[in-house]
Write a structure and sequence with these properties.
Layout: E1 2-7, H1 11-27, E2 32-35, E3 52-56, H2 61-69, E4 74-78, H3 81-92, H4 96-115, E5 119-123, H5 130-140, H6 147-156, H7 164-169, H8 180-190, E6 204-207, E7 212-213, E8 225-226, E9 232-240, E10 245-255, E11 262-269, E12 273-281, E13 285-295, E14 302-308, E15 316-328, H9 331-336
Parallel strand pairs: 1-3, 1-4, 2-3, 4-5
Antiparallel strand pairs: 6-15, 7-9, 8-15, 9-14, 10-13, 10-15, 11-12, 11-14
Amino acid sequence: MDFVAIGYPSPLTTWAFQILEASLRRLLPELSVLHADRNDSVADLGTRQAPRLILSQFPNPDFARSCEKRNIRTLVFADDIVEAVRHVRQAHRISTSQALRPVCAGLVLARPFAAAAQGLVIRRDMAGTAPEILAVLLGHFGLNLSREQAREICRQIGADHPSLREALHRLVPAESVLDEGDAALVAQVLGGLQDLQHGSPGAVSWPRQCFLMGDRPDTMPPVALAVTGRARIIYYGPYYHLPRGSWAARMSVGFSQDIRGMPFSIEVHSTELLGKARILAERGGIFSLEFDIVVAVPHEPIEVRVMNEQGAIEGHMGLVGIDFTQWRPHPADAAQA
């Protein structure tokens, strides 16, 4: 028998995976625990006699399809997106734009599990004490502990707080709070994806602050960059993820008044080229390019490249960002519906 729990990196997922493992080991001494990553498949899902707890922050899409096909009961943990990014940033001592990468990946890959008939979504604001919430988690799997056993497990892992929210707040130091700018960035990148149970994802924006400079790798670009010199990649990144499907993309860029007849190209890559556009900058101003992309493999990160196609002796450009809207099912999925 397999028990599956999914959750993007966050305080809630950390707490839930820990309390689930402790509880199931108490109930099922022969339990084995498997941590599945985005490139892992679980070939024998639902066919084993011995109990197995499968935990994943980045579940493979094939794994999601297998769970749905075999009616595997699944728990999906959906934490506050700002708290999730704060948690990752603090744990790994990285920037907000970098912390967005694993949270975005896990959020996108959790969507099919949350939408499945056998999926139960657990949120940070769930009411009840830790033992009461644990009873709900185990009940979804058809299991139960006595009240005293539940309290004991919660005490052992330090989860005996009056509420789930209080327990989660203690997992991340208060001094790691995000400022307004970082919180706004999280909302732009993840806001349209956070409702896991909504059939269609909302609009997604990747602003300049998510990207990196071609001339200075791993460095966030300023508002304006000189394009003088050889043809090259001016901007690249951000290595975030989008749900599987077709998207309308809109890239906005600005040019200085001394730009004259300079061709630029924009390419969106994953494991293959997803879409591209080209603009001839003949005057200064802010311009938008619209094109469509089709995402087939949501577990692979996406790289956007902005390139000048010929050398220049003067001129500056700025990247406003790229927006993804008007999601539609992948053509292959729509044909099967």
